[in-house]
């Protein structure tokens, strides 16, 4: 990791209360940067701040990514005003799904799209004027290998991540003249509560932990995210070799991947 890239910078980590986002905060709190940390669970954010802050380098700003643009614009302005500086946003907040499309309430589908896609889009739009003021700005978006493929019972999740990947690809090209780095990270399985927090057909959370099938640790995920972000990568798949392989099978042998994925239903 090029640690010097993060020196004296201010980053906003959204989705910082658990899993990958929490570990990113823990890892970044050791670097010479200042952090604004956001999610809905204020207690978890306060605890993270009290455990890991050094020299007042962490500030808490609660937000709900399913809020409307005006509310997220207001939060983005507050995030900037804390230090009158914003060098990067880490868009980590997200929610998964465990339900067949046919059974799903449309409102559940919409919630997943709101949090995973619209929330990230609204924050990005609101923060662009601030990022343009930075000498070395970055947008780091935690996508998923499901931004490139779909598996059963993940229609909304895969749709939101495909939309996010296309959005970030197009934005990267638009922002090139402004030197704003746009990095999409596509994790495979990471050992977090994503499955436990996933929405069922009626919109309730699954509530039980899942076997994360030998997924990588949050420490490894955060390390790799910071590595690829500091290297200025546009896109990186992180996770076990099998998930990286799946993306290549999808690209070069799509019919084979369809067969593999069908067996998962
Ligand atoms: N774990 C994996 O295997 C895996 C694989 C591929 C991609 N990812 C992606 O990685 C990201 C982080 O997930 P994770 O695995 O770390 O899961 P997690 O432990 O469930 O963390 C999800 C984070 O998103 C936040 N969040 C959810 N809904 C929100 C809302 N409405 N407003 C604001 N924040 C919200 C949560 O905070 P609050 O509940 O406090 O709001 C929490 O901080 C997600 O985008 C996920 O799609 C994970």
Automatic annotation (TrEMBL):
Q: Name one Pfam family in it.
A: adh_short
| UniProt KW Oxidoreductase keyword | yes
Q: Name one GO cellular component term.
A: membrane
Alphabetized GO MF terms: oxidoreductase activity
The yes or no answer to whether the keyword Oxidoreductase is present is: yes
Matching entries from InterPro entries are given as: NAD(P)-bd_dom_sf, Sc_DH/Rdtase_CS, SDR_fam
Q: Which Gene3D superfamilies match?
A: NAD(P)-binding Rossmann-like Domain
What keywords were assigned to this record? Oxidoreductase
Q: Which family does it belong to?
A: Belongs to the short-chain dehydrogenases/reductases (SDR) family.
Task: List the protein's name.
Answer: Short chain dehydrogenase
Q: Which organism is it from?
A: Flammeovirga pacifica
What is the phylogenetic placement of the source species in the record?
Answer: Bacteria, Pseudomonadati, Bacteroidota, Cytophagia, Cytophagales
């Amino acid at each position: 990791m090029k640690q010097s890239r993060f020196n004296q910078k201010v980053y906003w980590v959204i989705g910082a209360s658990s899993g990958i986002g929490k570990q990113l905060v823990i890892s970044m709190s050791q670097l010479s940067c200042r952090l604004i940390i956001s999610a809905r669970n204020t207690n978890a954010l306060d605890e993270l701040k009290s455990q890991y802050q050094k020299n007042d380098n962490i500030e808490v700003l609660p937000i709900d990514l399913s809020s409307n643009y005006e509310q997220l614009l207001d939060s983005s302005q507050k995030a900037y005003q804390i230090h009158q500086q914003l060098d990067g946003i880490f868009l980590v907040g997200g929610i998964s799904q465990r339900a067949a499309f046919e059974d799903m309430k449309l409102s559940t589908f919409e919630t997943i799209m709101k949090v995973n896609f619209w929330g990230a889009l609204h924050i990005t739009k609101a923060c662009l004027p601030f990022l343009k003021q930075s000498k070395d700005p970055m947008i780091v978006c935690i996508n998923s290998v499901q931004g490139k493929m779909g598996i059963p019972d993940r229609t909304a999740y895969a749709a939101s991540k495909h939309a996010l990947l296309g959005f970030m690809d197009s934005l990267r090209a638009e922002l090139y003249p402004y030197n704003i780095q746009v990095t999409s990270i596509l994790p495979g399985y990471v050992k977090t509560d994503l499955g436990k927090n996933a929405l069922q057909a009626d919109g309730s959370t699954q509530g039980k932990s899942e076997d994360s099938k030998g997924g990588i640790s949050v420490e490894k995920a955060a390390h790799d995210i910071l590595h690829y972000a500091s290297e200025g990568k546009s896109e990186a798949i992180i996770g076990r070799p099998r998930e990286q392989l799946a993306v290549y099978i999808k690209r070069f042998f799509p019919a084979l991947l369809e067969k593999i994925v069908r067996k998962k239903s």
